[in-house]
Design goal:
Helix content is 39%, strand content 15%. The chain has 345 residues and is of the alpha/beta class. It is globular and about 45 Å long. Strand 6, helix 9 and strand 7 form a beta-alpha-beta unit. Strands 1-2-4-3-5-8-6-7 form an 8-stranded mixed β-sheet, sandwiched between helices. The N terminus is likely disordered.
Length: 345
């Protein structure tokens, strides 16, 4: 009997050993399978990552540095000359070859990076660099200048079908004199598909009622707060406006300001409030142009005041506004679509 007991114990021990080894094999077997799946799983997210990265991201620090460097009145001849020196020096550092274009009352700055398609019309991005007397113009319009310089940094070496042009207008505050002089060279307009003009893009307010709207415009307010970016364009070139409507697609909307696009008929003749910046001379030359703005005196109490200083720039709004402009500009540069509004077929 003891023999049988011992034999039974030996059999049970053997089964236990074999069973335990079998369990170990089953636990380890998935490991090679996981290792084999890794090369398959890793490439899958790559296209999404490249797609997101295809639109370069703005630098808040670089944007604000430009605002600080331009923290002085830019009204007198000497002050505007110092401003041109700063802008041209920054462009040259980035590999651009800026040109000074004199006109009777001032000097514009122009630079371009040629695209890969001869047939594709250029996209121009511009802003005025002068101020009214007694104002350092952090929002009006160092903010616009800073975004143009950031576009110069991000898109200067990018290969796109369309040519990218940059313009810094003088004497906007004296009556759009710089942009009028710019468009008077009609030969340069023949290959210009559209212009993006920024005038004040750095101020936001978040209290109810701080945002006003001009009379006579059929606007459905998207907010009673000044937390959105307005883009004003002519109805003859709606694809330019559409580029801004689509400018938030590569990021969650919560990370960028809302965009209010305003299509203006009859070149603004019935709505003179929409003709107050450097986009207007382009409209009257038949060139599509949009004004990108935080709505100026309809929102900010610092408009044309000594208090328009860097401390009043709303950092997150300004960064988001700049990113929206970069997104829209990138999309326009990479597509050779017709920017004139097409009649319904």
């Amino acid at each position: 009997m003891r023999k049988w007991i011992w034999l039974m114990l030996l059999v049970l021990m053997a089964v236990a050993v074999v069973g335990s080894r079998g369990s170990t094999f089953f636990e380890q077997r998935p490991s090679p399978a996981i290792v084999e799946r890794i090369p398959v799983e890793i490439p899958q997210p790559q296209p999404e990552s490249k797609e997101v990265d295809s639109v370069p991201q703005v630098s808040t620090d670089k944007l604000l540095t430009h605002i600080q460097k331009l923290n002085f009145q830019r009204y007198t001849t000497t002050e505007r000359s110092l401003t041109r020196t700063y802008i041209t020096t920054e462009l040259t550092k980035l590999g651009w070859k800026p040109k000074l274009e004199k006109f009777s009352e001032g000097v514009n700055i122009f630079a371009e990076r040629v695209g890969t398609s001869i047939a594709a019309k250029a996209i121009l991005v511009g802003a005025h660099y002068d101020t009214v007397a007694l104002s350092p113009g952090a929002d009006d319009n160092a903010s616009g200048v800073a975004v143009v310089l950031e576009i110069a940094r991000l898109l200067g070496s990018r290969s796109t079908p369309r040519t990218l042009q940059l313009a810094f207008f003088d004497q906007e505050e004296a009556g759009l004199l710089g942009s009028q002089a710019f468009v008077s060279k009609t030969e340069r307009l023949q290959n210009l598909g559209g212009a993006i003009v920024m005038d004040m893009v750095g101020y936001a307010c978040y209290t109810a009622g701080c945002q006003k709207y001009p009379a006579g415009l059929p606007i459905t307010p998207i907010s009673d707060k000044g937390d959105f970016l307005a883009v004003v364009g002519d109805t003859e070139h709606l694809p330019l406006l559409n580029a801004f409507q689509n400018s938030q697609n590569n990021k969650p909307k919560s990370e960028l300001p809302a965009v209010l696009t305003l299509p203006i008929p009859f070149k603004g003749l019935l709505t003179p409030d929409t003709l107050r910046s450097d986009h207007a001379p382009f409209w009257y030359q038949g060139v599509g142009a949009v004004l990108v703005t935080d709505t100026a005196n309809l929102r900010t109490p610092h408009y044309h005041q000594p208090s328009d200083v860097p401390a009043t720039i709303e950092r997150s709004f300004f960064t988001g506004a700049a990113q929206i402009v970069v997104n829209a500009t990138t999309a326009l540069l990479e597509k050779n679509e017709v920017l004139e509004t097409q009649p319904p077929s």
